[in-house]
Amino acid sequence: MTLSLMRYAIHTVAGHPGHEKFWRSVEEMLTPEQRQRLGNGGDIRESTWLTPAIRPAAQGPGAQGPGEREIVACRPLLDLIYRHEAGGFASPYEAYNRGSAGDSLGKPWPGGLQNLTIAEIKALQQAGKLFAVGAPQMVPSTLLEQQPRAGLSDADLFSAANQDRLTTAILLQGKRPMLARFLLHGTNQAAAIDDLAFEWASLPNSQGKGWYDGDNGGNKAHGSLAAVIGALQASRARLISPAKA
Question: What angle do CA 216, 218, 228 make, to 5 degrees?
Fold first, then answer.
């Protein structure tokens, strides 16, 4: 397999279910010469040969996370996600469940989720008292992964502003690479829609259906495909035109 063909395959598949098996299969096909060209011992995931939308985002101490302009630019998508993921609460930023969609409607968290630190949210998730939290309905593994990408510490509050930063990190910093590539480079809108639906069960895929419809968590996509396309295109337009953000 040529490196150019590998690049195409990676951009098409990376980030979707089963992607770790895909990475391993690609790495096994590398010749010694190709490993040398990639650098980093042939670890294709860490190679500078990959585009920024595919490479893992900078993490750890000093990581800044998404800027205010990026968050404002992504507001059409944030509003769409929050409306469908976190409906039924006085504020979407206070939404939560304990493992099934809608299992905590009408039961505000005592004192409010936004007054808890990220460390306290993670502890409650680990104890099984919370599962999906906040406007983006972040499950434990996603919060752990996106916290450093958003540049947030355990001491930071799970505030509305920080939930926006966490969600924008998902959109732009490579968790769903085809989504990031569309927003930043305008490529493959259908794949970006599919990535959104992989991340948020309430949103339809490019065929108008939810990836998780009818699962054990009670999920069902109820957003419209037209609304998803509109929010994607509006956010991309804002990202590439700072004056409109």
Answer: 120
- Residue 31 counted as domain residue: yes
- Domains in the chain, number: 1
- Residues in CB range of 166: below 8 A, 6 or more apart: 134, 136, 138, 143, 146, 147, 150, 152
What backbone phi and psi angles, to 5 degrees, belong to 157?
-75, 155
Write out the residue range of the structural domain in which residue 27 sits. 3-46
Q: Give residue-wise pLDDT tens across range 215-240.
A: 777 788 988 999 999 999 999 999 99
8 A C-beta contact, residue 54 and residue 177: yes
Which helix (DSSP H) or strand (DSSP E) does residue 61 occupy?
A: none
**Is 27 a domain residue?**
yes
Note whether 211 and 188 are within 8 A (CB).
no
Q: Is residue 209 part of a domain?
A: no
Rounded distance between C-alpha atoms, residue 2 and residue 8, angstroms? 10
Q: What is the pTM of this model?
A: 0.74
Residue 12 falls within a domain, yes or no? yes
**Nearest-angstrom CA–CA distance, 222 and 203:** 6
Q: What distance lies between CA 133 and its chain's CA centroid?
A: 14
Taking alpha carbons only, the member of 150, 86, 158 closest to residue 125 is 158
